[in-house]
Amino acid sequence: MAFLVPFDGSYLAEAALMRAAEYGEALDEDVIALSVVPDDESYAIDVGWYEQREDDPFSVQYVAGKLRDGVADIAPEAAFRHERIDTGTAAAIAARITEIADEIRPSVVFLGTENVGEIAQPVTSVAGGVAENATYDVHVVRYYAPPSIPAVGLEEGSYTEG
Length: 162
Hints:
The chain has about 160 residues and is α/β, with parallel strands linked by helices. Helix content is about 35%, strand content about 20%.
């Protein structure tokens, strides 16, 4: 099995990748970062993947390379995969992620999104389209740093197996 992380370079996608890498190391699971890159220069500019320059023309490979570098900086052990699509709509991106998830069959998909309350009614959310698939668990990452959890103090003999 593996953990799948849709990765667009946003700070919550970075957080999801960090979390997946931590869980992957602890549970001996592979981590796959997946970037879906629309072949659309204006989309790439809007999301901050590309700055228009004459000496460096837009290409999906260029953007994928930048995203791959981001994955390597955060989780060097993670595999990277990118997929090219024609349109940059949330529905198209979510559909492609879901297709790849059906192929990979991950045990968990780690989603970085602040729209967790809107997942039930995904209008413009990639996360909503991915989360609705029932063939894998979804770990939603809403904060860059996980909340701290106080240590649980168990008294000797207070734990029983049952």
